[in-house]
Amino acid sequence: YRFPIFCLPIGLRISSLPARGHASLFLVTLGDPPDEYSTEGKVQGVAVDVVREIFRRKEVEFRIEAYPWGRSLKMVQLGEADGIFTAYKTQEREAFMDYMSQILMPQEVSLFALKSSGLREVTDLANFAEHRIAVRHGDSYGQTFDQAVENGVLKLVHRVSDGDTVVRLLINRRADLVVFNRLGGYY
Question: From CA 12, how far away is CA 114, in angstroms rounded?
Answer without folding.
Answer: 37
